[in-house]
Design goal:
This protein is an alpha+beta fold. The chain is 38% helix and 31% strand.
Length: 124
């Protein structure tokens, strides 16, 4: 409501100044209408952008699943191929570690399983 009060106060004072100074008041009325439409669009956009949200913590937590982060050793391998002349060539790929991030899931009483990456206090 404060948005509209501020807008109309500015428009009424501006319109009164235009009438007293005898300028072209039709131009001012047109500008008032355009400003009102633009302002209404901004207020409506602000209202809808702030109120659209997805509720995740709506039910009780009924179950949880936690898998610690871990590193997996992927062993090296040898890949061989033979060309048309019968020559064999082999390439050896070395082994390496592959890191797997921790997985945390909770099950709520109303919407099932959700993956969670932060605790309730914001600490990862």
């Amino acid at each position: 409501m404060a948005y509209w009060a501020a807008l109309f106060l500015v428009l009424i004072v501006g319109f009164a100044v235009e009438l007293v100074t005898a300028r072209k008041w039709r131009r001012y009325v047109l500008i008032m209408l355009l400003a009102g439409i633009l302002f209404a669009g901004v207020v409506a956009g602000d209202f809808y952008l702030r109120t659209v949200d997805t509720e995740v913590w709506s039910g009780r937590v009924t179950d949880l699943e936690h898998i610690e982060e871990w590193d997996e050793w992927i062993p090296g391998r040898v890949e061989c191929s033979t060309d048309d002349d019968g020559d064999k060539s082999c390439t050896k790929k070395p082994g390496h570690f592959e890191h797997h991030r921790a997985k945390n899931k909770i099950k709520t009483s109303d919407n099932g399983w959700f993956e969670v990456d932060k605790s309730m206090n914001g600490v990862t």
